[in-house]
Amino acid sequence: MSTILVTGGTGYIGSHTCVELIKAGYDVVVLDNLYNSSEAVLDRIEMISGTKPKFYKTDILDKQGLKKVFDENKIDAVIHFAGYKAVGESVQIPLTYYENNISGSVNLYEAMAAAGCKTLVFSSSATVYGSPKSVPIREDFPTSTTNPYGSTKLMNEHILADVCVSDPEWSVLLLRYFNPIGAHQSGLIGEVPNGIPNNLVPYIARVANGTLEYLRVWGNDYPTVDGTGVRDYIHVVDLALGHIKAVEYAMNHKGAEYINLGTGNGYSVLEVLHAYEKACGRKLAYKIMDRRPGDIATCYADTEKAAKLLGWKAKYNIDDMCRDSWNFTLKNPDGIK
């Protein structure tokens, strides 16, 4: 069976993707510097899937470390998750983000080319659409960015498109995620943000377990169902399954493709909060704050291309996502150790 290298494989989306790759019969090699995750995740992957991935503790900025991985394994394809990912932090330390997310990625692509491995699934983001003029958002919409994190994703897309033009042997799928939430149904792996979470559902989880007092809701005067911002939330297991389909597609097609991974449905902040209340069985406190600059009212994916090219469609709903998030939160009050 094919061997897949997963960079950032102990992270949130990476770990769930490793589980689904192993279940689908692939051999998995994980490369991670453990900057934002724990090596204990590898044991959790084994508990769920029955197999512990081969692991290299190295960094995409380490060219020799990358070379070693490709020298010691016959890698058939790469799924590239490794990168810094906090929007706010990227505004404060842009050079760190550009060095890691762009220079590190270029190192990876060079190591792949040197090893003759030219099949890649890249972890991009719906942030590359900037402030879209309409919804649902299609892959052919104009791209623009509003922060350094988004810029690193878009620059990687440009780099990989150029690589595919320069060498027709390359096959690259650029997956633009919307808002991944939830956790594996086992409760063994899930999202473990550092410090106070930036994203909605990990924040609600902290309110639900009593760590934080209330949820701050940024604006309730948007033209939406209840005035709060609407986003496309996707279960992380659905997202992981999308990567399996993407790898299969990439192995049989050449060139670059841009594909949205979302549900095609928008949920408001308060709808997510109420779904979480149902999951944890109690009311959760929230306070309405002023709008945040740069936030848009509504954002959700057009998912037709993923259905057509990959034969993939999200199957979990917001209640499933919140139930699995709460299950993980209850079972791992101190994260994954």
Structure description:
The chain is of the alpha/beta class. It has a domain at 3-181 and 232-264: 3-Layer(aba) Sandwich (Rossmann fold), CATH 3.40.50. It contains eleven helices and 14 strands. Helix 6 (148-166) links the parallel strand 5 (119-125) and strand 6. Helix 1 packs across helix 8, helix 5 runs parallel beside helix 6 and helix 7 (200-208) packs parallel to helix 9. The radius of gyration is 19 Å and the shape is globular. The model has no long low-confidence stretch (mean pLDDT 97).
Record the SSE blueprint.
Elements lengths: L2 E5 L4 H12 L3 E6 L7 H10 L4 E4 L5 H10 L4 E4 L6 H6 L1 H22 L3 E7 L22 H19 L4 E7 L1 E3 L18 H9 L6 E4 L11 E2 L1 E3 H15 L4 E7 L5 E2 H12 L5 E4 L8 E2 L4 H7 L7 H14 L6
Parallel strand pairs: 1-2, 1-4, 2-3, 4-5, 5-6, 6-11, 7-10, 8-13, 9-14
Antiparallel strand pairs: 9-12
Helix pairs in contact: 1-2, 1-8, 3-5, 5-6, 7-9, 7-11, 9-11
